TrEMBL record:
Signal sequence extent: 1-19
TM region(s), chain numbering: none
Organism field: Rhodanobacter ginsengisoli
PROSITE patterns the record matches: PROKAR_LIPOPROTEIN
Keywords: Signal
InterPro entries registered for this protein in UniProt: GH
Name of the protein in question: Beta-agarase
SUPFAM superfamilies associated with the record: (Trans)glycosidases
């Protein structure tokens, strides 16, 4: 289904009409002829129509096919857009649902192309703007960009927030408009296409998006406030219910008999079910919240002041809420491509707390937060929480052992938070000793401490189909002086004796051990023809993980024999790493981002390892309360967050291996992104104003209380 139309209205020079660098207009509702329009599995419907604003548009039906597309090409040569910054396209979606539109701008050289994918919402006609350079919300300093379209002086404008690729704007060869693989006919109306200098629309999409309270300015929701008085009234509203009864002082259940009383939190298996046990000997299912802290509202303002409306002055009382730092971490994939990632920041959360309680805002926040958490049915302060909350001895708490130092490291290919620590380096052992000593110094004799986590979301595996072997491949590719590499080579020498024997087993050319001991050695990926590769890699992964977890566990036991080792908060893992964790830790912790806990870890493997599981992070997010991101696991709206929470928690408590679940996190992330990596999702129990999300909190409270009434299976 291909045909050609010439539909060009030249007002300048989008190609071969007049001045080659002047802006031009191309009208898809006009039959004027100059550039060529090719319809590939697209049908032009009827004559030109007039939209509500009396602008001419033409209806096009994209047929079910792999790549139905509308292609605009110059009548001859190429277009010169070297003085232009945006492509603007008049578009209207005729369907009652959003339609995905792929816009590609081809260069004269085949390898050069800009591409943007946008969801065109149902409704009135709007202007779609494609920046003529690669960009993304990450470039603007945040993980997710503001919702589109936005109102620009009464006109809906849909800016492609993410554009990928590169293009020599001196030679532009085509514009492609595609609806990717529709299953049924999708109808869109197009009007004129034009280029414009500068990036005004992109700038305007982000301009003034945050108000003085840290709230998104272009939307409303029940908890949004407009005045200091409204803020104070909403924050100071008392918890709806008192803490649940029928619990011991630690939050443990009184209805389970037969557990040991040791004076410390511990684990015990009773009638086929693993339990956390409170110091008084009662079953303790850990319902926790992560990042219960008052400093999560910090977001960079330097370099993007235009995004913020009515920021307080950086003097007087407000100066305390400004600061300077540098979050640039080139070794972390989490921070890759994040712009505006250093300099001056403003703490919206703390400033709001000051508006509520004045100079004593921190103490007031701590007391109020503990009241809330207990009233909402939580019994644990999860990782990354304010240490002073734990020291209040109202809720059991956890501690992080953050191991840092100048020890060697290994790339696994994932490396989201950085490369793996090399546990074979003596400097790692020393760093672990220091970290454990620091973490345990003031809590080793505190019965309110549930236990310790070590590090967070280490890169135990790589990415892709061969990701399980990433740490083995990375070890052999490492520096010739890497302690881990030397340990791996020593293991291979002991196993194979001669390099030729290893070469035969792995199906590679290797005439000497020196050939293996070079920086950048390209080790083979496992395959069916050479089973020894997977066997050797698996043995190495076991040894690597054993060395890491044994080193940490021994340091904990030396400095604190009373408290639990809660594992390493797995995000990615291998069977070898999980087995090593189970061997040396009291509890294996997983950060699980899935609809149900059993979809985030290998439950069968954990049953065979016979060790309790703690879900150290989970959440469900939506984008209808301000922040643009919807979290790692998203749902359609705020009401569904509560439904998803209740379903997840019920599934966790019904599993005899699982001993707790910790929500991530207490407060929403800043609209313009947190300092660390620009994350900006609505995943909190409370907003950045410290106002609880009433409907969600009500669902959480009901689920928490219901879970504590269920018989332990």
């Amino acid at each position: 289904m291909k045909r050609h139309l010439l539909i060009w209205l030249c007002l300048g020079g989008l190609g071969g009409c007049h001045a080659a660098t002047a802006p031009g207009v191309l009208d898809l509702a006009s039959p004027a002829a100059t550039p060529q329009l090719t319809l590939d599995h697209v049908q032009r419907i009827g004559a030109a129509e007039q939209a509500g604003d009396r602008v001419a548009q033409q209806r096009y039906a994209f047929q079910p096919a792999t790549h139905p597309q509308l292609v605009l090409t110059p009548a001859r040569g190429s277009w010169d857009w070297s003085s232009q910054g945006e492509l603007r396209l008049r578009v209207q979606n005729a369907m009652p649902w959003a339609v995905t539109l792929r816009v590609e701008i081809d260069g004269a050289v085949p390898a050069q192309r800009l591409q943007a994918i946008v969801g065109v919402p149902a409704g009135p006609a709007q202007t779609l703007v494609i920046p003529l350079q690669a960009t993304s919300p990450r470039v603007q300093g945040m993980q997710a960009g503001p919702p589109m379209p936005f109102d620009d002086h009464g006109q809906p404008v849909l800016v492609a927030a993410t554009v990928e690729g590169r293009l020599d704007l001196h030679k532009v060869g085509a514009i492609r408009l595609e609806v990717p693989a529709p299953q049924a006919v999708q109808t869109l109306l197009f009007g004129r296409v034009e280029t414009a200098p500068g990036t005004a629309a992109l700038h305007q999409a982000y301009a003034g998006i945050v108000d003085r309270y840290g709230q998104f300015t272009r939307a409303g929701w029940p908890e949004k406030i407009a005045t200091d008085a409204a803020l104070r009234a909403a924050v100071k509203a008392a918890p709806a219910e008192p803490p649940p009864s029928g619990r011991d002082v630690w939050g443990g259940r009184l209805d389970v008999q037969g557990l040991n009383r040791t004076g410390w939190f511990h684990t015990q298996k009773l009638d086929g079910r693993w339990q956390l046990v409170s110091p008084d000997g009662h079953a303790f299912f850990s319902l926790g919240v992560n990042a219960v802290a008052a400093d999560g509202g910090r977001s960079y303002v330097e370099g993007r002041e235009f995004m913020f409306h009515d920021l307080p002055p950086d003097s007087g009382a407000w100066a305390a809420f400004y600061g300077r730092s540098d979050s640039r971490r080139p070794e972390q994939a989490a921070s890759a491509g994040i712009g505006d990632n250093h300099g001056r920041w403003f703490d919206f959360q703390a400033a709001n707390l000051y508006r509520v309680d004045g100079n004593h805002w921190l103490a007031a926040w701590r007391s109020r937060t503990l009241d809330r958490l207990q009233a909402w049915g939580f019994n644990t302060l999860g990782d990354w929480s304010d240490a002073a909350l734990g020291q209040a001895h109202r809720l059991p708490y956890t501690r992080s052992i953050n191991i840092a130092g100048d020890y060697a490291n290994v790339a696994s290919g994932y490396d989201y938070w950085g490369r793996m620590p090399d546990p074979f380096d003596p400097r790692f052992v020393q760093a672990t000793e220091r970290a454990v000593l620091k973490a345990s110094a003031d809590v080793r004799d505190d019965p309110w401490l549930l236990g310790y986590f070590a590090d967070n979301e280490l890169a135990w595996a790589g990415s892709g189909a061969q990701g399980r072997w990433g740490l083995a491949l990375g070890t052999l590719a490492g520096d010739a002086h890497s302690p881990a590499k030397q340990a791996f080579i020593a293991t291979l020498k002991k196993e194979y004796v001669a390099p030729e024997t290893l070469a035969t087993a792995w199906g590679i050319a290797l005439t000497s051990w020196d050939a293996l001991n070079v920086t950048g050695f390209h080790a083979p990926a496992p395959d069916e023809a050479h089973p020894a590769i997977a066997r050797d890699y698996s043995a190495w992964l076991r040894r690597y993980a054993d060395t890491y977890f044994r080193t940490v566990a021994e340091a904990i036991r030396r400095h604190d024999p009373h408290h639990l080792f809660l594992g390493g908060r797995f995000a990615v893992n291998t069977p070898e790493a999980v087995a090593a964790c189970a061997r040396y830790c009291d509890v294996v912790s997983f950060n699980i981002y899935a609809d149900l806990p059993q979809h985030g870890f290998d439950a069968t493997a954990m049953q065979s390892l016979d060790k309790p599981v703690l879900i150290s992070e989970f959440h469900f997010g939506s984008d209808d309360r301000g922040p643009f991101g919807k979290g790692v696991v998203s749902v359609a709206n705020e009401a569904q967050r509560g439904t998803a929470y209740a379903r997840f928690l019920a599934a966790a408590e019904s599993d005899p291996q699982i001993v707790g679940a910790h929500w991530f996190q207490y407060t929403d992330q800043p609209v313009t992104g947190r300092l660390l990596d620009g994350e900006n999702s609505h995943i909190g129990l409370v907003g950045i104003t410290d106002i609880p999300f009433g409907g969600f909190v009500g669902a959480v409270r009901a689920a928490n209380r219901q879970s504590q009434k269920q018989p332990l299976q």
